[in-house]
TrEMBL record, chain A:
Component of the mitochondrial ribosome (mitoribosome), a dedicated translation machinery responsible for the synthesis of mitochondrial genome-encoded proteins, including at least some of the essential transmembrane subunits of the mitochondrial respiratory chain. The mitoribosomes are attached to the mitochondrial inner membrane and translation products are cotranslationally integrated into the membrane. One of its GO terms (biological process) is translation. InterPro entries: Ribosomal_uS7, Ribosomal_uS7_dom, Ribosomal_uS7_dom_sf, Ribosomal_uS7m_fungi. Signal peptide: none annotated. Keywords: Mitochondrion, Ribonucleoprotein, Ribosomal protein. This is Small ribosomal subunit protein uS7m. GO terms for cellular component: mitochondrion; ribonucleoprotein complex; ribosome.
UniProtKB/TrEMBL annotation, chain B:
Belongs to the mitochondrion-specific ribosomal protein mS29 family. This is Small ribosomal subunit protein mS29. The keyword Transit peptide applies. PANTHER family: MITOCHONDRIAL 28S RIBOSOMAL PROTEIN S29, SMALL RIBOSOMAL SUBUNIT PROTEIN MS29. The lineage of its organism: Eukaryota, Fungi, Dikarya, Ascomycota, Pezizomycotina. Keywords: Mitochondrion, Ribonucleoprotein, Ribosomal protein, Transit peptide. Pfam families: DAP3. It comes from the Eukaryota. One of its GO terms (molecular function) is structural constituent of ribosome. It is found in: Mitochondrion. GO terms for cellular component: mitochondrial small ribosomal subunit. It comes from Ophiobolus disseminans. The keyword Magnesium does not apply.
Length: 341, 481
């Protein structure tokens, strides 16, 4: 009989939510749907914003049940559910009961500790994506068969097929991430220079070798395999930026803490703001890199190298992001929520 | 009693000698070494008194609370001399990420001149790629680094060029061997240099003797040494280093022919050469001794002019640089015309028809629209030739207020007549079928993530200025719309 408990599950101090399966959609209808949810005022409303039915909102299974389910899926023999749950599980999280355990078990508990596994964060850094069908844009345009509109008599040209192509508008012909990065690269209002730098960055990503992902620096969940990245440079760029983008910023409120110390309050960032912060970090790191070549393409090359370093987990930006998140977790008590009426 | 005044003066001299002018002290204490600086050097510097700091100036921040910012010492190794430029000029011909195109067929000796290729994308075989690389036919601005391996679209103009190759080869059997001369002209990014490269590919595959001047600007920009050619009237100038380098390119690209061919004439060289030497040894002589490179080039040309030798392909890119004054100065500080440089003159003589290729051949010159100087006579001649092709009734007139470069006009005068051998190939936009073929190639290489259908092709074709191939690549592959 296999051991009833997977020892690895002990290591988890906080039960991680199972991640929603990200599906690849060739064309995403909406990239980012701002939620209209007001959490305290309309909790009775069970409309589209009600996430209680969602699988990721369900409380995690009991540890043995989860192990049994996993074993069933994997086709292995899991713990026998008809038998009792071991004592360790019962006393878990119960300080009073733990004191009354025999010494052997106390020592064992202490040894395993509540420490998170080395190299992984003790808190989640992923946002849940609201709205279905979201995911990374695979850059495939118009591969899906578009809906054919019925023939209408009296038209000189055919009716346009719906949905309209996303690059159909003259002013929005670039991908939103590309557009944003271009604007952030721009100096002295010289947009066409920024655009040609952007094109060089994408070309560099396209010709760079397949990145090796560092498991200690996980990319976004649902990221495509690294072999897909160089052929889709926009996805590569988006993945690098979104993976390293921080979830919050720390606002220092002066005079709120007293004693001349600023009160640090974490403030959540929107998607565009998060990307902006990430791009500015990347640009800062790139400008500190040594310029090895000569000529006009060197800035683009350094930025592209930094992007590759981010995806491969070599970049120092990851530490920066972790520091912000850690500070945010530490200062979470300073958040003042609106009073409930 | 002595006079009191005199005594007083004398005593003052002796007591406060230091307080008086230096002339007085010098008189009193004559020094041994008048030119010594040691005393001042070893004199102890009066230490600054502590606590005598001047009060802060008005408007200057005296309190510096910021942490001292030290510039990080950049101790890394610098790139070696020439490394940066080498990186900038590096030619990359392969992208391992791009997908292999299974349907891609190679050009070969048999099918390179075939008209069935029209509108197809064809791969360039490996040996030819090496030869093209040797003659510097690939440019950094071209998009070779995006694809798995070099391939070219056999467009309408390329087939037209292939037809010329065929004409020359057909005439090789008869007595009258033809020398056909063409100038490639067109808009920016319309594929002139690539068409020239296609011409060179045809030359290599059909085993012609290929001489390519990769960039006329390098010859006239005064970056290589020059020397007057003895016994030339008017004075011509040789460029020994450049010519030696050109001989090396020729040797690398046409090595097989040079190796198997023996000398048939006795060349007049400053350095002795055995009578039974091969042409390769002749060329190697020129490479090793740059001062003899021009006589070696002339000797090589004489050898190639002997009967039974292959046809010759002479090509140059950036023609407008060769149609004006060069950056060199003559002995009386007058600018040297580009036609007075021996290499350029050699090319121009064959382009203008002043000299003929005895075994037949093709002379190709390509204009450039980026980084090209104004050469009014060349532009006008091309305009006239294009007008003659399109609408012979409406030939443009020379603007009489412009100063004319008579030498250039003289060398291009055949463009103004009905000479079949000298003409212009206008490199225009692709047709939609050709655009579709190249876009399917992009899509199969994995660089274009879109279904290639009529609507999409038409859209990109129009965006690219009616099928300008460079713009087409830019909008569909380089993601710069």
């Amino acid at each position: 009989m296999p051991p009833r408990l997977n020892t690895r599950t002990f290591a988890r101090s906080i039960p991680l939510r199972s991640k929603p399966q990200v599906r690849w959609s060739a064309r995403t209808a909406t990239r980012f749907a701002p939620s209209q949810c007001r959490p305290y005022s309309d909790f009775t409303n069970s409309g589209a914003n009600d996430r209680s039915k969602k699988i990721d909102a369900q409380p995690a299974d009991h540890i043995s049940e989860e192990a049994a389910k996993t074993a069933e899926i994997m086709g292995e023999q899991g713990p026998d559910m008809s038998k009792g749950t071991p004592v360790e599980e019962i006393v878990k999280g119960d300080k009073e009961a733990q004191d009354k355990l025999p010494k052997v078990m106390k020592d064992k508990l202490k040894a395993q500790g509540n420490a998170a596994p080395k190299g992984s964060r003790s808190y989640s850094t992923m946002t849940t994506q609201t709205g279905a069908g979201n995911g990374l844009d695979m850059g495939l345009v118009d591969v899906q068969a578009a809906i054919k509109t019925p023939q209408t008599p009296g038209l000189k040209f055919e009716m346009p097929t719906l949905p309209l192509p996303k690059d159909g508008h003259l002013k929005y012909r670039y991908d939103p991430v590309v557009e944003q990065v271009t604007n952030l690269i721009m100096q002295h209002g010289k947009k066409s220079v920024a655009q040609s730098n952007m094109a060089l960055i994408l070309q560099h990503l396209r010709t760079s070798p397949i990145p090796t992902i560092n498991p200690a620096k996980p990319l976004l969940p649902g990221a495509p395999p690294p072999s897909h990245l160089p052929l889709n440079p926009i996805l590569y760029l988006t993945l690098a930026i979104d993976s390293v983008a921080p979830l919050m910023r720390i606002r220092s409120q002066r005079g709120a803490a007293g004693g001349g110390v600023a009160l640090q309050i974490p403030v959540p960032l929107g998607q565009r703001q998060r990307r902006r912060v990430a791009v500015e970090w990347i640009l800062g790191a790139a400008s500190k890199r040594r310029n090895v070549g000569s000529g006009k393409g060197s800035l683009a090359q350094r930025i592209a190298q930094e992007m590759v370093a981010v995806v491969e987990g070599r970049s120092g930006i990851w530490d920066r992001r972790n520091a912000i998140h850690k500070l945010g977790v530490a200062a979470r008590a300073n958040i003042v929520l609106p009073r409930k009426r | 009693m002595p006079p009191s005044i005199c005594l007083r003066n004398f005593s003052r001299l002796s007591i406060d000698a230091a307080a008086h002018s230096s002339s007085a002290s010098r008189l009193l204490h004559p020094r041994a070494a008048f030119f010594s600086t040691s005393s001042t050097r070893y004199a102890t510097v009066a230490a600054k008194r502590k606590g005598s700091v001047l009060p802060p100036k008005k408007g200057v921040k005296s309190l510096n609370t910021k942490k001292s910012k030290k510039a990080a010492a950049d101790a890394g190794k610098r790139p070696a001399q020439g490394e940066r430029k080498a990186q900038r000029k590096r030619i990359v011909l392969s992208n391992n990420n791009a997908l292999e195109v299974s349907s891609l067929k190679d050009l070969g000796k048999e099918n390179v001149l075939s008209e069935q290729n029209e509108g197809k994308v064809m791969g360039i075989p490996g040996d030819t790629v090496d030869a093209l690389r040797d003659v510097e036919a690939f440019k950094t601005t071209q998009g070779w680094s995006l694809f798995r391996r070099p391939a070219v679209l056999m467009r309408k103009e390329a087939v037209q060029l292939a037809r010329l190759f065929k004409e020359v080869e057909d005439s090789a059997a008869g007595q009258q061997k033809r020398t056909i001369r063409r100038i490639l002209s067109g808009d920016r990014k319309s594929g002139k240099s690539t068409l020239l490269l296609q011409g060179l590919t045809m030359g290599f595959l059909r085993e012609w003797f290929v001489i390519n001047l990769p960039e006329a600007q390098d010859i006239v920009s005064a970056h290589t040494e020059y020397a007057p050619l003895p016994d030339s009237q008017p004075t011509q100038y040789t460029q020994d280093e450049y010519t030696a380098n050109l001989l090396q390119q020729i040797q690398k690209a046409n090595g097989a022919f040079l190796l198997e061919t023996k000398l048939s004439t006795t060349p007049n060289l400053p350095i002795p050469l055995p009578e039974t030497a091969t042409l390769k040894e002749l060329v190697a002589l020129g490479q090793a001794n740059p001062e003899a490179s021009w006589p070696v080039f002339v000797a090589l040309w004489n050898e190639l002019s002997q009967p039974g030798r292959p046809p010759i392909l002479l090509a140059v890119d950036g023609l407008s640089h060769a149609m004006r004054n060069s950056e060199y100065l003559s002995a009386d500080v007058k600018p040297v015309h580009a036609h007075d440089l021996t290499l350029i003159r050699h090319f121009i003589d064959h382009l203008s028809g002043a000299k003929k290729l005895p075994n037949g051949g093709l002379v190709l010159g390509s204009t450039s629209q980026s980084n090209s100087p104004k050469a009014a006579a060349l532009d006008y001649s091309i305009e006239v030739a294009e007008a003659r092709q399109k609408s012979p009734d409406d030939i443009p007139q020379w603007n009489p207020y412009k100063s004319v470069d008579a030498r250039v006009m003289e060398s291009l005068k055949d463009l103004h007549t009905d000479n079949k051998n000298f003409d212009v190939i206008k490199v225009g936009g692709l047709t939609k079928e050709e655009a579709r073929a190249i876009m399917e190639y992009y899509a199969e290489s994995g660089l274009l993530r879109h279904t290639v259908n009529d609507g999409f092709v038409t859209e990109k074709w129009s965006l690219a200025g009616m099928g300008n191939i460079g713009e087409l690549e830019r909008t569909s592959v380089r993601l710069r719309i």
